[in-house]
User: Fold these one by one.
Assistant:
Number 1:
Amino acid sequence: MTQFMLCVPRSVPVADDVRLRSIESDPWLIPASKALLDRPELAEVPYLTDGASIDDLFKAAHEVVLNGGDFSVTHLSSVLRQMTGRCSALVIWWAGDWADLPVVNSTEDLLRAVDEQLRTPVGDVYIRWESL
């Protein structure tokens, strides 16, 4: 299941229930940020204020869509919509597999891609979103 997310914030907070921590707290993410982001020094790691992980958001949304539910009403969809309004870039991937992520530039394309990828049995999401 999707495990990691990095963002380059334009404003803080990036979502109502999401806070950021320095990428320096998670040094294994530094190579990914350098490879994926135009400004890796600004990369931050999002986390949920209620103690859940980003992974938990993806797991819950995966469960919803696999049971025939609507992705647009999930907590993940809400968080991603907020983040695209408050970040200049987002990258999402699983494990060490962050090379060659597909790139999208609109919120709608991001949400559509996440929805489609969650509908697979494994539900891993690999995507890079950059605002234009």
Number 2:
Amino acid sequence: MKLFHIHSCILQKLVSTSVLVYLLAGCTTLGPTAIRSGRLAYNNAIIETENQQMLMVAIHNRYQERGNLLAVASVTANVRVRTSAGIQPGIGNENNYAGNLVPFSAGVFYEENPTISYTPVGGEKYMRQLFSPVPISILAQLTGTLSDPAPFYNSLVSSVNGIYNPDFYHAATEPDLRFSRLVAILASLTQAQRLHWLEDPKQDGSFSIHIDRSRAGFETDITKLLALLGLKPPKDPSDAIIIPVTLALDRRSKGGIGITTRSVWDLVEILTASIEIPEKDQKNGITASYPPPGPVGKTLRVRRAEDRPKHASVAVKYRGGWFYIDEKNQATKQYFRLLGTMWSVTIAETSVNSSASPVLTVPVSR
């Protein structure tokens, strides 16, 4: 019996030691595990809250209140891992403690304490970027690389050679069907790889549209496009068409395309007008009024519900209700994604070489 008891104690020690070694070895894999579990969680939380902030700015704008953004400057996650092990050997006759004691114990304690720093978005440079027209370079990159450029022409361009795409229909404004026809042809030629945006390597910021006429079947569309733009076709029908593009109201007299673009804040205003407002708030006069929406605004809708919506791509609670974008409303989701992209570019460009330090740092602990 004594010999058996000695062998049992030795076995307990060996097993407990093995478990401890295994746990300590496992700690070396906690770094990659922390990245796998933490990186997506932090990223998803940042994206979700950025979307909520953007929607809230539009809501504040509708209620004629001041809105603002906080940018996440940094997230520092401090990970702490502790291990413990213990042995509870029996003493005396084994019959006195058999079944009542756990011979060994071990554990790993994982603790994560992130520190999050925020920076308020603002300043003169940011305001200039927010209210300035979208550069031709961004328009060329987006419409020249995406599978369907039509929504981006509709959202970002306000006029092409005197053909207008208004934000809103004011008293004297009437729909101009030429713009939708123009966009349809531009999109069709782009998808067929007949139309390309190119930048002049010798002149920074200078762009042109190249139309390839080497393939048959597109002459009708090309002829209609040139007619809408008010441009004369080249004398040689086999030549490629090269049209310089400038940020201007009209360049027909120069044989080019004059484009005016919207600003990021123009996009916010269009989204703001699409927000559903309770009838009592409208009657009380606490919300801004907007003219009838233009072609883009007609397709957008930010809904409101008393209870939290179950199927929303983004939702925020405000004034006793929930404002949200339905996850099935593809037009509004696409527009909101574009707005988020343009807004993030604006924030990033104004943050470059900025010496301002975060004004709010929040340590998060359990």
